[in-house]
Amino acid sequence: MTLYLHSAALTVVGAGTGAAGLHLTRQLVPAAVVLDIRLPDIDGWELLSTLKRDPVTMNVPVLIVSVIDERARGLLLGAADYLVKPVGRDLVLGSLARIGILPAPAAPDVAPTDLLR
What we know:
Blueprint: H1 2-7, H2 18-28, E1 33-35, H3 44-53, E2 62-66, H4 71-76, E3 81-84, H5 89-98
Parallel strand pairs: 1-2, 2-3
């Protein structure tokens, strides 16, 4: 994940636990948070809910990337997007573009006649 984000010239600050992630998010107020639901100390759902209730962090977009396939729950709790692992670079960066963290990819130059072939 870090390699994908670095390849888009994003600065990554990692957190090894949910508590550390909460502390860093409150301290840094980042452009976005990439969150896994499976955390070693607290439940990722609990962390997402806490981030969305906190006036300091409530407007930070959260992209969930997890093996747990509960997209509807994540979006209901306030996630900006939800991806199910395994994910590739294009999927992650596309999601960050959709939520406004990265510029949208440019459309390819295609002549109208090319679309008919």
